[in-house]
């Protein structure tokens, strides 16, 4: 279980690679419950999304995200960063490998929802992580001859969920509010 200070919905403000200027090439959202997380990255140009989910562990000063579902497997079996708090923002630093080269990165994250309430549900090859007013459903059934599906939604002022991003057959994935009504889904965690 990660400390409460990490729970919530985080939006990446910027990324800097190898000491370069910070910028943001994508809409990046990370939903963190007590242990479960889901992450969606939609590039500003092109359509090469990234989506992954799993569990998070904390060994100060390092957060490690253990991927159980991963669209493109780009994290090569590890995804971790050293964490520092700077003026209320979460700053993550670490390294990643690309094309045989090791690169340093620094990401700055802002909490956009405190995540006072959350629900995590799972099914075979799928997870729904809902934190506050954000929900992210991910299913990887490629091994069963199907597809990789994503559904991102927000709770609206009209007191209903509306989709913000759908990939593959994501529109067939439930939201937390209706997953408990469907056979095959089980509650993993909630608050």
Description:
The chain is built from one helix and 14 strands; from the N terminus they run βββββββββββββαβ. Helices cover 2% and strands 59% of the residues. A hairpin with a 3-residue loop joins β2 (26-32) and β3. By secondary structure, it is mainly beta. The protein has two domains: 4-113, Lipocalin; 118-190, no CATH class. Strands 1-2-3-4-5-6-7-8 form an eight-stranded antiparallel beta barrel.
Radius of gyration: 16 Å
Q: Could you name the CATH class of the largest domain?
A: Mainly Beta
Largest sheet: 8 strands, antiparallel, barrel
Number of strands: 14
Summarize the structure.
The chain has 191 residues and is mainly beta. The protein is built from one helix and 14 strands.
Features:
191 residues; 2 domains; 8-stranded antiparallel barrel; 59% strand
How are the secondary structure elements laid out?
Blueprint lengths: L7 E10 L8 E7 L3 E8 L6 E10 L2 E9 L9 E7 L2 E10 L2 E13 L4 E6 L2 E6 L2 E7 L7 E8 L5 E7 L8 H4 L6 E5 L1
Antiparallel strand pairs: 1-2, 1-8, 2-3, 3-4, 4-5, 5-6, 6-7, 7-8, 9-10, 9-14, 10-11, 11-12, 12-13
């Amino acid at each position: 279980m990660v400390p409460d200070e990490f729970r919530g919905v985080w939006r990446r403000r910027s990324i800097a690679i190898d000491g370069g200027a910070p910028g943001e090439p994508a809409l990046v959202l990370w939903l963190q419950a007590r242990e479960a997380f889901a992450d969606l990255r939609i590039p500003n140009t092109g359509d090469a999304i990234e989506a992954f989910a799993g569990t998070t562990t904390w060994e100060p000063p390092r957060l490690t995200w253990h991927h159980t579902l991963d669209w493109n497997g780009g994290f090569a079996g590890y995804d971790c960063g050293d964490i520092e708090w700077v003026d209320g923002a979460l700053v993550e630093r670490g390294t990643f490998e690309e094309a045989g080269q090791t690169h340093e990165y620094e990401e700055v994250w802002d909490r956009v929802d405190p995540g006072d309430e959350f629900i995590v549900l799972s099914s075979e090859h799928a997870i729904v992580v809902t934190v506050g007013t954000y929900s992210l459903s991910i299913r990887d059934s490629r091994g069963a001859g199907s597809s990789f599906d994503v559904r991102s939604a927000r709770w609206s002022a009209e007191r209903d969920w509306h989709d913000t991003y759908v990939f593959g057959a994501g529109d067939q994935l439930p939201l937390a509010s209706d997953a408990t009504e469907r056979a095959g889904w089980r509650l993993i965690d909630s608050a």
